[in-house]
Amino acid sequence: MSNDTVDKLVIFLAKRDGIDKLVKTFQYVSKLAHWHVEPTHPDLAKRAKNWEVASGLSRKAFRTGRFLTGFNALRRSPGATPLFRTLGIFANAGEMVYFFFDHFLWVSRIGLLDVSLARKMSFISAFGESVGYVFFIIMDYIMLKKGLEQERKLDKNSAEGNKEMQRIRGDRIMRLMAVAANVADLIIALADIEPNPFCCHAVTLGISGLVSAWAGWYRNWPS
Questions:
Q1: Cα(59)–Cα(18) distance, rounded to whole angstroms?
Q2: Disulfide-capable partner of 189 in 14, 83, 114, 130 (CB 3.0 to 4.6 Å)?
Q3: What's the pLDDT tens digit per position in 155-207?
Q4: pLDDT above 90 covers what percent of the chain?
Q5: C-beta of residue 162 within 8 angstroms of C-beta of residue 156
Q6: Integer Cα distance of 186 and 209 in angstroms
Q7: Which residues have C-beta within 8 Å of that of residue 133, sequence separation ≥ 6?
Q8: Residue 129 and residue 186: Cα distance in Å, rounded?
Q9: Which sign does the torsion angle of CA 26, 31, 35, 39 carry?
Q10: Spatial distance between the Cα atoms of 21 and 174, rounded to a whole number of angstroms
């Protein structure tokens, strides 16, 4: 396969996760732009807000049917050990609830359903999302710890040991990116579940959204 950047970008944007991370970048850049220019340039702030809202609604449309990913993972019994199966059930069930109720949040916000349902759907979706993120973070933490233990036992002077070390370190980077994205998205979800000055501040939300988006870029970018 070609290493050309344009080829990789085409492959990246052909994935649902790829286009989602691009539009997520638009969403949270526009949120920060709105916060920055609102005191001095209200007209520009309104345009930035429109861009943010449009990006958020577009992402919800792209995620149609995404809850089936969590459902299928549950159906296939996630995890190779009893501990990971238990963690996987909670993680995937939370993700499934998130994406399923996100559909109703989307159609409420565009006016197809009663707009008053949006707040309730947002809470249920964010609650499921938070549960999923917590258990995915726990799973990644366990695997990161296991990887460190395996690395200490490797014979670093052998070709096979070096190859295995590279694999472990590559996996570690991907898992750290996943943890960064999940922690950032958890902060955003908490702003919906329990609004507070820290989580709800535009800078907190903007930076968290960009951390999540760019970690997703890294994880989904073709090698």
A1: 11
A2: 130
A3: 777 888 888 889 999 999 999 999 999 999 999 999 999 999 999 999 999 99
A4: 80
A5: yes
A6: 10
A7: 94, 182, 183, 185, 186, 189
A8: 8
A9: positive
A10: 16
